Amino acid sequence: MADTTSTTTTGPTESVTHIAHAQVGAFNAYGVWAIYRFQMARWFRTLGESLATPVITTALYFVVFGSALGSRINEVGGVPFGSFIVPGLIMLSLFTNSIFNASFGIYFPKFTGTIYEVLSAPISSLEIVIGYVGAAATKSVMLGLVILGTAYFFVPVQVLHPVAMVAILFLVSFTFSLFGFAIGIWAQSFEQLNFIPMLIVTPLTFLGGAFYTIDMLPPGWRDIALFNPVVYLISGFRWTFFALQDVSLAASLGATFGFLLVCLGVVAWMFKTGYRLKN
């Protein structure tokens, strides 16, 4: 009697499932690039409007703040007032655009129902986040550099630490893009999509020393301002330009990384539980 050996046959369904799991297990660079490229292509279709808005806004800020207040405030910390507000202007645009680009990028697929195609694709949640957040951060960095270039036409600008400036620019862009990504998942309407950026982030930016140092505030208000996380972000970025800071660079980087970790935790929880993604 011949000796027979038991073999396991894998059916078509099991094979497809195995391949899908294998693709998810390894880093799916092609999937990340597909999401990233799609988001960037959508932005490039309206590139003129996307770049014209910050350029015009920056010019208006220099006309209003540089001319009106500049005539009354000659220097801040030995820096001409017009030059002093450049880092604050870049940060103001960076915050708002990072949040808007990332939140709209993930909210629109939810709104149209195409998010289920992304969730069912052989791509992990981390890769989805990298694709969407990476595209939003890239747009914000490009806008920040455009605003910096625009500022050179109005005031003399000196960047004492250009490498640190670019590093913080990328770090803040990615952090707030991740924050915007969480807002896009949370939002259930276009009104909610704009609620946090307009009513929370923008006021905190204006109160966070974008156009002044907190040392110019009365002692009591200065202590209150230190509870504003935006103060730490703007202070660190301004240091790369003029070596001026409201708080230490270590505190600025610590606050930025701390906020980044919080956003990572929130987004990870959203994907793990399917919060407003699968229902």
Number of helices: 12
Question: What is the beta-strand fraction?
Answer: under 5%
Summed over residues and divided by their number, the pLDDT gives a mean of 84
Instruction: Tell me the structural class.
Output: mainly alpha
Q: Give a count of the beta strands, DSSP E runs of length 2 or more.
A: 2
Task: Indicate how many domains the architecture comprises.
Answer: 1
| First-last Cα distance | 59 Å
For the largest beta-sheet, the strand count, sense and barrel status come to: 2 strands, antiparallel
Radius of gyration: 23 Å
Helix content: over 70%
Task: Write down the secondary-structure element order.
Answer: HHHEEHHHHHHHHH
Low-confidence region ranges: 1-24
How do the helices and strands line up, and which of them pair or pack?
Elements: H1 12-25, H2 29-44, H3 47-69, E1 75-76, E2 79-80, H4 81-84, H5 86-112, H6 115-120, H7 125-151, H8 162-186, H9 190-206, H10 219-225, H11 229-242, H12 249-273
Helix pairs in contact: 2-7, 3-7, 5-7, 5-8, 5-9, 7-8, 8-11, 8-12, 11-12
